Amino acid sequence: MREGANVLLFGRTQSSLDATADELNRILEGRARAVPFAGDVTQATDVARGLEFAERELGLPGILVNNAGTVTMSLLVDMEEDNFDQVMTVNLKGPFLFMKAFARTLLQAKKPGAVVNISSLAQLGVTEGMAHYCASKAGLAHLSKVAALEFGGHGIRVNVVAPGVILTPLVENAGFVERMHRE
């Protein structure tokens, strides 16, 4: 953003998005804009409306960063099906929906672009109690490779960033930090 890129902040909670947009816009002092849009990454209609809003407010999007994610801790034998579905839907279906809609927009406009999918080192290894998370991130890595293959000839790059554990409220609430301290 400091280089002048406008940003759509897409998330579930309007008040948090508004506060973040206000803070970013204050810091940027008009060099770029951040605009909030409340929606659900797991719903194709919300994704489409979010991208339409971004184009209307900021112009044709050229970069997509898929950063939404969720994690919980549960042994496979104890994991509830709903919990498994939630993690897979947010971590894998959400990026799929956004990449599909984003690429369609760029292909129609005959414009290049870039996708950055935020995965995790869990895409490469396994952690007890995180079967759903590890599977979702490995799936995201492979989905990204296929997208890169399919979109690359049209000037749309797709990359994956796989950071290690980042201390966020989500990670703390999942019990991952306590587990790390015990080991």
Helix percentage range: 40-55%
- Which strand order do you get reading across the main beta sheet? 3-4-5
Strand content: 5-15%
Tally of individual helices: 6
Q: Give the CA-CA distance, first to last residue.
A: 39 Å
Estimated radius of gyration:
17 Å
CATH top level is Alpha Beta
CATH architecture: 3-Layer(aba) Sandwich
Total number of domains: 1
Please characterize this protein's 3D structure.
- By secondary structure, this protein is of the alpha/beta class.
- It has a single domain (39-182), classed as Rossmann fold.
- 51% of the residues lie in helices and 14% in strands.
- It is built from 6 helices and 5 strands; from the N terminus they run βαβαβαβαβαα.
- A 3-stranded parallel beta sheet has the order 3-4-5. A two-stranded parallel ribbon has the order 1-2.
- Helix 4 (131-152) links the parallel strand 4 (113-118) and strand 5.
- Helix 2 runs parallel beside helix 3 and helix 3 (81-109) runs parallel beside helix 4 (131-152).
- The longest helix is centred in the middle third of the chain and has 29 residues, at 81-109.
- The chain is globular, with a radius of gyration of 17 Å.
- The termini are far apart.
- The model has no long low-confidence stretch (mean pLDDT 90).
